[in-house]
Amino acid sequence: MAAPSHAVIAGIGGQLVSHAYLEQQLLPGLDPAATVGFERQAVRWWRSVSRSIGPAASARQVLDVATAPLLDALGYAVSMVRPVGDLLAGLCHGGETPPALMVTLPWAAPVAAAWREAIRGGVGAEAAWALVTNGRSLHVVDCGRPWTRHTLQFDFATLLSHPHGSRLLWALAGAHATCNRAGPNTLRSRVDASNLHGARVCQSLGDGVLAALPALAGALSPGAAPGAQPYDQALTVVYRVLFLLFAEARGLVPVWHPVYREAYSIDALYQRSVEPRVPRGLWAAMQAIARMAHAGCKAGDLDVTAFNGRLFSPRHAPLVERRRVPEDVVKALVLALATTDTPAGRRRIAYHDLGVEQLGAVYERVLEHEPVVTRGGVMLRRTSTERKATGSFYTPRSITEFLVRRTLHPLVVDRPIGDLLALRVVDPAMGSGAFLVAACHYLADQCELALVRDGQWDAHGVTPADRAGLRRQVAEQCLYGVDLNPTAVQLARLSLWLTTLAAGKPLTFLDHHLAVGNSLIGGWLADLAKPPVRGRAINHAALPLFDAEVSAVVAAHVLPDRLRLAIEPSDTLQAVRDKERRLERLSAPNGPFANWSRATDAWCAAALWPGAAPSHAVVNEWIASLLGGATTLPAEQLARWLAKAAAVASSHAVIHWELAFPEVFFDALGQRRPDGGFDAVLGNPPWDMLRADAGAAAVRAADRERATPLRRFFRSSGIYTAQGQGHANRYQLFAERALQLTRPGGRFGLILPSGIGTDHGSAALRRRWFDRCDLDTWIGLDNKAGIFPIHRSVRFVLIAATNAGHTDVLRFRSGLQDPAALDRCASDARQDKGDEWLSVSRSRLQAWDPEQLSVPTLTSPTALAILTSASAAAPPLGAVHGWYARFGRELNATDDRAHFVERSARHTGRKSSRPQDRKTSMLPIVEGKHLAPFQVSLAGTTHAVLRETATRLIDPSTSFARDRIAYRDVASATNRLTLIAGLLPKGTLSTHTVFVLKTALAPDAQWCLLALLNSLVANYLVRLNVTTHVTTALMTRLPVPRPPDGSAAFCELAALARGLAKTGIESAPDGYARLNAIVARLYQLTPEHYQHVVETFPLLPDGLRRCCCDQYMLRTESQKHGNTV
User: Fold this and answer.
1) In which residue ranges of the chain is pLDDT below 70?
2) Is 278 helix (H, G, I), strand (E, B) or coil?
3) 381-397 pLDDT per residue, tens
4) Of 260, 772, 836, 1009, which is the most buried if we count CB atoms within 10 A?
5) DSSP-derived secondary structure letter, 214
6) Greatest CA separation found in the chain?
7) pLDDT confidence of residue 15
8) CA dist., res. 605 & res. 647, Å (int)
């Protein structure tokens, strides 16, 4: 049996396009007749080059004999050739865009040595691509994304002997491919198509994994002992197979050896599984493969390096070791992982093409599901809510790469290798490790640059093994991660193992830096002298003084071992096992940090206590006892309390950062470092809220029981001091935690929902950032293209900052929809160029929103000018010198539901705009869905509440006893309109999806204000700040003009609003257009600015938008001639 091929088409390499894409999509679509002339010319060219040039040929000889004739045949014209050291560089013209860069080396010189010159020259010439050749091979370098180091490589001797080789060379490297901006035949389009093909392969692979898992878990389940976790062990089998397929495709296991290839490779299992009948012995063979991978083997010329760690350990998967799994289940699993479904049938997956990041997307799909045992066996159920809550959303590679380089660049530029390997980078919600993998690649590349720059390495001699060694060093010394989900931690470990695989080396040791835990819940040693729940003070004198003891233990027994774990290489299995034993000693129940860990657990448990929290005096006794001090509590009672405290802490997966990673926070003498913390914190934390108002009563009760102690901890422990007073949102907590974990002068880079810039609950955090950090990256993206598997209306922000200084001017951009645009952003934020980048001073933000310092979503200089003009022309809606309007809620559909009664058909069928239910003492309940611009649909209401009950629940004078403006709470910047308001008549009530005006206004004033709120300009301004809710805080700061009572504008707006309440805006487009023209004049918008506002509402009918513009121009012309409103 032949060894599995590592390349479908010999002579083509690199990471820009996949072999599977070339074979399955590109080649079948190429017209052979179109390239027959070039194919003949290319073969003749290579024969001539082979005869005419020798190993001592200089770059000039290579250019004259090989490069120039080839480029001419590919459609290029070469110009401006100049020497650069022993290289030659020039420009290759051939299309409508800036030329490609040409770099020629001496014959057979290492092409990788010219990579830096290719990037420098390509960027300087604004070239998208560089063509680098040494006469024997051609490398196409992506100058648009230099940090990826992705290339497309052609080896002429091998390629041109392939029947399709010259055709592919023409299609991918011809002038039409590299020197044109757009079109299906450009290289950029081919790269995009290859990426899309890879995404489809991963989608199919994920489908296969999810299809095969239930049967495998079911086969492992019968008779399993409690806690055996057959599903988790089935996952381990899947990860083993994926790992080995990846390793086999890269030659990192001895597939060249016939014994290994035919008896111990996954490829051998695949060859048997494609047979029509179900083969025997598949499960036994898979068990044998796992044992070989775990133990290794050296027999004659067969040398199999053992893969250490828990992945192949029998101890961590005992069911897999003991159970017998049906052969048809194993066959289905192998085919699901080795092949993908295509229109032409199932095809073998080219794992050589798949990157670790792509496999990460497959892993994340597993995290979306959980097993459910049914009568028919095991099935999988989606758990997207839990996945989000545990911080395991998969982050697309383009985003992780950008945020990693943007965050780390200031820390690595011009730094020596020692400083680079001393960096400590953490992802506190790491999921499957996407950010850590990206950081590993980036830091390893920077280490290589430093070694070459400082003369320690020769650029011509850097080998793949050298680069793999750097990645191993970076992973073990620099990278840290925490996640609440144990499966996610296992996946992150697997991702980093695949990233750092090296032939003949065991797996990197990562257990000292990757931990399971809730990054948000945990204390610091300094907290032990403080109350776990803020309020009364405790007797600090009763606590033992342990600073000196901590320092002694850290210096003598902790830091030396922790540093050895990171620095000593993991090049042998024995070295790795020594590290495992050393870490076990440090983490043992009697380890050096055990007492302080238990004491900090108890401190946290007091704040997380179910029910009434223990008194501060009792907690003080616990801590004193655990740290060796005296206690007055009876021993038996103390033991019970401490046992429960330990259980509470364990149930919340607390992690105490300075105890988990002491080398980050303590110096060599064991003293707490004043600059302690990570050099960089990266991540895409979960975005969910801690609330318990959804689902059935039992679900809400369970959620309250779970959420109440968490809220107490976050609000009262004193650890978080920059949170709002509303519902606790996990992203806000993670953002504050990231700042706590970042050392002074360090960096943090986060993906957060856009509410970080506008939400009321994020205001304190924003102020802290502006006061204490240098915010250099603020990029807003829209989810319209489904970047994340959440609603398409959601916006999010990429933020990077230094934990030092302050921010006087914020430079930002918003409205990106394609993450690929990030590839064109510089690594150094100071080098960003283009009109899409906007700058706004803190003083201006303060003027727009003095209380909350919100950052609006501005997508262009025009948007910035409109907001500036509108804010100058109109006071905030809540300002005393404006409308002084306040909005609030009335009923809560969840909390008050017991008081609701269904309305009868005779009530809901009425067409009247005024409710008659008050005659029967029934008040209809209006929800947000019953509101349309200017209108309230009472006919659509389904529930009501007794007047007598309503009087007990709410003050009638501010609610159902009068007419009042109401607007929808839930909205989106992508809806037809965002701010939707109507006049709620008296004798009605509303639920929490509606906000109502609490300020008493005269009837005409209410109608005027209603007109202003439903205007396009007000909607536009709201969209600059809205996420998914139009909050009262947003409305309070919304600029809204206040025309004088009785003025022409005031009276006309009130009259138009009354009319539109009867007709709606689409039935009276002229009236709505006149209203908007008046409002635009009140905001003092220019014609150009008003037209821009109208154009941002594409879902409104075209005729209505044209009418709005026409009416504005008519009114403007009328006022020019002295006719004022």
Assistant:
1) 1-8, 223-228, 383-394, 534-548, 690-703, 726, 785-793, 904-920, 972-974, 1120-1125
2) coil
3) 876 444 443 334 567 78
4) 1009
5) H
6) 105
7) 86
8) 8
Q: For residue 792, what pLDDT is reported?
A: 65
Distances, alpha carbon 618 to alpha carbons 33, 666, 848, in Å: 87, 30, 49
- CA-CA distance, 604 to 801, in Å (whole number)? 30
Q: Please spell the DSSP secondary structure of 153-184, one letter per residue.
A: EEEHHHHTTSTTHHHHHHHHHSHHHHS-SSST
Tell me if the pTM is above 0.85: yes
Residue 377 pairs in a beta bridge with: 374
Cβ(649)–Cβ(642) below 8 Å: no
Distance in angstroms (rounded) separating the CA atoms of residues 758 and 812 = 14
Burial 595-622 (b: 16+ CB within 10 A, else e): bbbbbbbbbbbbbbbeeebbebeebbbb
> Among 973, 889, 887, 977, which Cα is nearest to 926's?
889
31-185 — its CATH code?
3.90.1570.30
Other beta carbons less than 10 A from residue 819's beta carbon: 19
Separation between Cα atoms, residue 178 and residue 96, nearest integer Å: 10
Three-point CA angle 61, 65, 67, nearest 5°: 95
Q: What is the pLDDT of residue 412?
A: 97
- Say what the pLDDT of residue 780 is: 93
Q: What does the alpha-carbon distance between residue 1123 and residue 1125 come to, in Å, rounded to a whole number?
A: 7
Element (H, E) at 1121: none
pLDDT in tens, 557-599: 788 888 888 888 888 888 888 888 888 888 888 888 888 899 9
Q: Locate 341 and state its tokens.
A: 């479904």
pLDDT attached to residue 576: 85
The three-class DSSP label of residue 455 is coil
Q: What is the pLDDT of residue 843?
A: 95
Q: Where are the domains of the chain?
A: 31-185, 196-382, 397-488+508-516, 754-764+771-837, 887-998, 1002-1028+1041-1125
pLDDT of residue 984: 96
The pLDDT assigned to 914 comes to 46
Query: What 3-state DSSP class applies to 553?
Result: helix
**Who contacts 233 (Cβ-Cβ below 8 Å, separation ≥6)?**
220, 317, 318, 319, 320
- Nearby residues of 94 by Cβ (< 8 Å), 6 or more positions away: 74, 75, 76, 77, 100, 174, 175, 176, 178, 179
- What is the C-alpha to C-alpha distance for residues 638 and 651, in angstroms, rounded to an integer? 20
- 777 forms beta bridges with 800
Distance from C-alpha of 7 to C-alpha of 15, rounded to nearest angstrom: 12
Structure tokens at 545: 């003084």
- Position 384 scores a pLDDT of 47
